Amino acid sequence: MIKRGLTVRIAALYALICVPVVASAACRDDTVWIRGDFGEARFTVEVADDDGERALGLMHRPSLPASAGMLFVYPRPQRLSFWMRDTLIELDMLFVDEHGVVQNIHHRAVPLDETSIFGGNNLTHVLEINGGFAEMLGLSVGDELRHPSFENSEPAWPC
Predict the structure, then answer these.
(1) 96/100 Cα distance (integer angstroms)
(2) φ, ψ for residue 137, nearest 5 deg
(3) What is the pTM of this model?
């Protein structure tokens, strides 16, 4: 089981990092790009941009594909905290400002835990991905996200 799990993680890492990089690739609502010292990665995302979608998030799901995630979008910069109520899978949470810059990363949030996870102040986005992927990819504070939802606020990495 350990060997298979490692093989799956290596394959997922390869798929995320070794994507063709096209400088002029159009931004899409269902795709988030991340760039940093590690290189670039791409995630296919569901966007949660209203109160109902944000409240439900990734609750009740037994799994999440390796290159997938959920992008929570808020209308204005604010203090953000999350929890794992009714969330069945371990998650990494990237807390992001209005310019698309990662301000905080919470690694391996515990499934079903109702403890508040403080992300920070002046945030507009949270990207949730499979637990352990942020560390595996080498994601860090200061990395930049690319997505159409940043276009109205002078994005660090424009579309």
Answers:
(1) 6
(2) -80, -20
(3) 0.87
